[in-house]
Amino acid sequence: MDLARRLRERQRRGSPRPPLAQDILGGREIGHAGGTLYLITDEWSGELPWPPPGDLHSQLQLLHGIGPYTEERLRAEGYGCLADLVDHPRWGGQARRILAAITQGDVYTLRQAGARDRDLVALFRPEEALFLDIETTGLASARPLFLVGMVYWREGVFHLKQYLARSFEEECPLLSLVVHELRSFPLLFTYNGKMFDVPFIRARCLTYGLPLPKGHLHVDLLSHVRRVWQGRLPNCRLTTVEEYCLQSRPADDIPGALIPEIYYHFVETQDVAAIEGVIRHNALDLKTLTRLVPILED
């Protein structure tokens, strides 16, 4: 019988649960939304590499219908930037709209127009960015989420927050607090987060009737790793990128495939040693994300 079924069987029989763990990597229990969860924090000094301001004003191909050939022809006619096109009979309306989007920092309009992530990120300050990584009990969003890690940067210091559900009942307050935290950061970095992390969070929020996180510029660094390193690495998993390009993953790191089983064991026993390796794994993933930002320049 697998651990999930054993847990359900224990609940059916009314077997007593062990007290929730209180001594996990120096963290503490916190209350939120009528429930409890566990918070682990850490910080370390360092600089967050950030792209310098781009030159969106000179990118004529942000206008729909302008490709390389048309751009070359327009430049030959003396149209060197978007401002030069504002009175153009064909391109003037679009040029004014894109220039307004640049002035207002409207990254959604600019992204739809084809602006690169590198130029969009440069419109933000490093302090506005949040790096996110989650750990779950399976790939299907019908299974619980139990750990959400976040990193943000302030004045030369990285700040790590990891929210842990020590039992399945703590998932709802965890998600509620995560949604609250996400509202403070307009720029989100993940690794495969467009396909997994963010849809998973949204699905779990729907399960509990919680408001959905929204309103971010979401930069998925996996797409940039594939753009730069696919074909040069065995695969584009984050641990592979670390091994070949960053040399930062310790040999005793927990394989991701074991994480669901480890968590079910932790819920059943509240064995702190069982879960601390997963928490460290999550922290390592987040530190790697902060080191991958320069790939936007490649």
List keywords for this structure.
Nucleotidyltransferase, domain 5, about 300 residues, 7-stranded mixed beta sheet, alpha/beta, single chain, 2 domains, elongated, 7 strands
Spatial order of strands in the largest sheet: 1-2-5-4-3-6-7
Strand content: 15-25%
For the report, how would you describe the main beta sheet?
7 strands, mixed
Please report the first level of CATH classification, the CATH class of the largest domain: Alpha Beta
Q: What ranges have pLDDT less than 50 throughout 5 or more consecutive residues?
A: none
By CATH, the topology of the largest domain is Nucleotidyltransferase, domain 5
Number of domains: 2
Query: Count the helices. How many?
Result: 11
Structural class: alpha/beta
Mean pLDDT across residues:
92
The gyration radius over C-alpha positions equals 23 Å
Helix content: 40-55%
Query: What is the terminal-to-terminal distance?
Result: 49 Å
Report on the architecture of this protein.
The chain is α/β, with parallel strands linked by helices and 298 residues long. The protein folds into two domains: 3-50 and 124-297, Nucleotidyltransferase, domain 5 (2-Layer Sandwich), CATH 3.30.420; 56-121, no CATH class. 41% of the residues lie in helices and 17% in strands. The protein is built from eleven helices and seven strands. The protein has helices at 3-13, 68-76, 92-104, 107-112, 117-121, 171-182, 193-208, 221-229, 238-246, 259-269, 272-291; strands at residues 28-32, 35-45, 129-136, 145-154, 157-164, 187-190, 217-220. Strands 1-2-5-4-3-6-7 form a seven-stranded mixed beta sheet. Helix 10 runs antiparallel to helix 11. The mean pLDDT is 92.
